[in-house]
Structures are given as structure tokens and as C-alpha cells.
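subagent[fold] <- orchestrator: predict structure for attached chain, return C-alpha cells only, no commentary.
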Amino acid sequence: MTKVFITDLVLRDGHQSLIATRMRTDDMLPICPSLDRVGFWSLESWGGATFDACVRFLKEDPWERLRRLRKALPNTPIQMLLRGQNLLGYRHYSDDVVRAFVKLAADHGVDVFRIFDAMNDLRNLRVSVDAAKQAGKHAQGTICYTTSPVHDIPHFVALAKELEGMGCDSLAIKDMAGLLTPYTAGELVRALKSAVRLPINLHSHATSGLASMCHLKAIEAGASIVDTCNSAFSEGASHPTTESIVSALQGTPHETGLDLGLLQEIAAYFREVRKKYWQFESAFTGVDTRVLVNQVPGGMISNLSNQLKEQGALPRMDEVLAEIPRVREDLGYPPLVTPTSQIVGTQAVLNVLTGSRYKSVTTEVKHYLLGRYGHAPGTINSQVRAIAVGNQEVIDCRPADLLDEELDKLRAEAEGLAKTEDDVLTYAMFPDIGRTFLQERAAGTLKPEPLLPPGAKEASAGPRYAPNEFRITLHGETYHIKLTGSGHAGEEQRPFYVSVDGVPEEVLIETLSELELAPAAGGAQPGARTKTAASGNGRRPRATHQGHVTAAMPGTVVDVLVKPGQSVKAGDAVLVIEAMKMENEVQAAVSGTVIAVSVAKGDAVTPDEALIEIQPE
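subagent[fold] -> orchestrator:
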């Protein structure tokens, strides 16, 4: 029996899970002296989505946040979440970028690096682990927990042995969807304890309502560290409550020794802070047991619901939820965590909406099937692979082995914007929003998204005005929209000219219904009417025959692959569409000659439009 140590997640995963990662550094710093006195094993304070949120929404330098937290927490190890070869971005980076990022994070204050890979392909962890060790920091190897015919305890034990062989200092069980059950948690920890000598840390989301019980069983089986979150940001899609776990272990051989009174003071502070962020509150603040049946985490269900609603297909949610496990099986049972949750979920939607499984396959699924994300845990359906990628060669090497060193190239691209190596790596993680951030900082125009006052909840009952600058959040991504002009009112289809994150766009609005508005701030007259958005641009013909090429769902044209006069065969890719954050090729249904192309790169499209017309042979 041993003392149990606590990693508190309030500065990272707690607010990421419940208020969309929106807590600002200035709201963290005042309570840091109290947090520093508690005696946590570590405070998870950086990584995950915090880097993206700082740059995209809060207009804070994430590196400066880390430095300020390090200064404010002199006695407590700072922990970060790192996606292995993906770092904090959404692609694999070359090894020189990974090493530079880890070294800089260590220099600025990270003490514990929790390193994972969505596929549990440990080849994608090795460089990050080595870099953390070379920096003299704690490298925590991580197993992403899930359930499937191939994810059994011997499988996880084998992963643990490999992580120990890499030189990891401790082992984390990352139960990102809350699928772990109490007795399985105990059995898993006992098996790991008998196989490796590493300290074991359990991380489990409270989504299914089982996480606290899992913590207790894991502790009894020998886990020495558990992740919890202060009560102001715990439970639901977040994590078990720190104060509750501390209390549960009092008077036992596992007593944490943490001061409940001090923890209550911290909770009182964060409860007040949370009120400031009411506009970002998650709808998933309670138990959601659906995850135990379909393994779809609450946030993923929310995204699927929004996506289906946009396509007028919300009644088909049950079909999509039934299809997700089938797609996951076809792909060899990947754990459902970013990015594999999006890959599987989007393909399931396509399979349902097209009425034919794998009639349309996303580019990301094709990359997955070609080994670009790493080894699949189980056996991939050979028929699905043949449909999606044919006889293309599947890579067997570590995906990053195919990447040339790119740090010098990134430095050159950021020249004139980047003043430090911090800036170069900010640009590397998110080139578009990173560039905008660095430009705005240089111009002195950085401005965080506004926090609406609590009274704004009631203000919606008053007069309504049409804004000309605002932000919208769609599928978890937020975009800055500014209206710069419009066509003539009264037209059946009226163009509006806007900038989206600084990029000029044209949006065509078609009247479907009307809503009376009060006088608008932009000068509209009393009684002016608004038009609600309709599909497409209103100028393309409706699809009426097999030679008309259509999209399976609303999206944006990424590439047009054919020209008028070009011959195509049935099944040839003619367009690439981005929908639900994933790219997918649109194929010709017939062989023949392209006689019309009515779309261009960047166009928004809908399923009922004829995007390309082919004259059949």
C-alpha cells in the first residue's frame, strides 16, 4: 500500500472539457500561489488544445503563458499533453521540429511530458520521448484505452513493456472516452504492475459516470497517480473531483495528504471565474452513458448532431451511430480520439447519406488505409481497402520517416514575422492562424474574443439588431466574420461580401423564410427583412440525370480535377470536396466527356446541385 499522488487538471483539461479551452492566463495567475501550496504531483497546465485556443481565440502568446505559469508555480511540476509526432498541430512533423519544440517547452517550464499517439503506434512517440529525456525532463508514455476484439489486457501490457523499453519514466492510461469500467481498471493496473516497474497514472473522463470508481479500483490495484480536477471544473465531460478523491482516501494507506480546506478555497475562486465564461459552457455537463454502447464521446455526438442538422438529416442520427462501429471495425478498430474520431465519424456519415457504403471515401480515410497515420491496431477490411485505394502501396515505415527536415524551411517562411524561435514554432503548429497572430501582434491589434457580460443572457429578449462583425462556432472551430458589402436588397438571391478570418468570401443568400427585424446597426430601415441561407449559390442547375456530378453532403470545393472536353471513366475522381473537416473525392458516375464545370476552388456546394456535367458515351 502506498501514498497516492494527484495531478490536477483545472488549468488544462478541466476548462478544455467544459468551457472550450477559453480560460485566460490572467484568470489563472491569481490563484497560482494557492495551487502551488497544495502539493500536487503535477499541474497539467499546457498542451492539448490550449496552444490553439491561445492563438486563435484568446490572442495570447502560448509560450508567454507557459513562462508566466512557471514563474507563478515555482514548487509544482508543470505537465503538458503532447500528441507525439503531431506535437500540438494536426499533422506529423519532421523529427527536427519535434526535437526543437520539446526542448523549447522544457526550457520555458514544462517538467512532465505526457506523450501519446491516437493509433497507439509507439513509433510515433519515440522522438518526443527521447527529446524529453535529453532535456532532463519526465517522459510519461501513454496508452490510449479503448475496447475492441484486439484491445485486450495482453495488448496493453505489450505496449507498456515497449514504453518502458523506450526509457519512459512513468506510464499513463488515457481513458479519453470514459470507457474503462471499475473491475477492468483494477485488472489492467494489476497486469501492468506485474509487467513493468513504472509508476502508473490513471486518466479517465467522467462522461459515463464510472471514472471515480475506476480511480478507486486502480488505486487498490497499485496505481500511484490519478488525474482529477478541482470541483469548479470537474465531472461530466471533465474528470473526477479532486476534493472528493482526496476525501475518499483519507484515513486509508493511500491518503494523499492534501489539504481539503485549501482545495475548497481554490474551488471558490474558480467557481467565480467560470461565471465569466458562461457563453462557452458545454452542453455535456452531466453523465452521458451512450458512450458505453457506441463508444462515441459526448463531444463527438454533439458535432455529429450539428453536422446532420445542417444537411437536413438529423432524423438519421441513429443510423450514423449504428454505422460508426462498423466503420471502426473496417478500419481495424482505431481508438476514437483526435484525429481518428473525426476520420471514422465523417466516413460513417458519408456511408449513411450516400446510401451506399464507401461510395464516397474521404482523403483522410485513404491516407489512413495507406499507413500515413501509422499501424492500424487490428486487421483492415481488404474489400474496403480495395474500394478506397485500389492497389496503391501501403507504407510500412514510420510516417515521419518520409518527411525531410523542415525547421529551416519554416524559419524562412516565417521570416519577417517571427522574432524568436517561439514564434517560428507557433507558425509551424498553425501556419494560417499563426501568421495572422504574428501580424496582428506586430501591428498592435491583437484583440481577444469578447466575454459577454452575464446580463447578456437576458438581453436577447430585447430589440434585435443585425451585426456586421461577429464570430461563429461550427464543428468546434470558430471563425471571425466581417460584413464588407452586399448586393441589392429584394433580389431572389442576394450576394453578401464578407471576410472570414481575413480572407474575402462571397456568400449568396436565398430567401426561404422571413423574419421581422428592428432597425439594424448597419442602417437597415424599420421593417427590413432578412433572408435565411439556402444551399448552394443559387445559380447552378439542379441535378437531374446520371451525368450530373453531385456532392454527397454540403461542403467546400478543394480542387477541380477535370476540364470541359476531358474524357473520364466511371469511378474517376473529378472533384475534391471538404466536408465535416475531412476531404473526399467525388467520382464520375458514368463514362463520357466533361461538357460543363460549374464550380471552382473555394465554392460552397450542396447535394442537390449539378457541379459537373458529363455527356455519357
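orchestrator: received. Logging for downstream: Confidence is low (pLDDT under 50) at residues 459-465, 514-538. The two ends are 77 Å apart (CA to CA).
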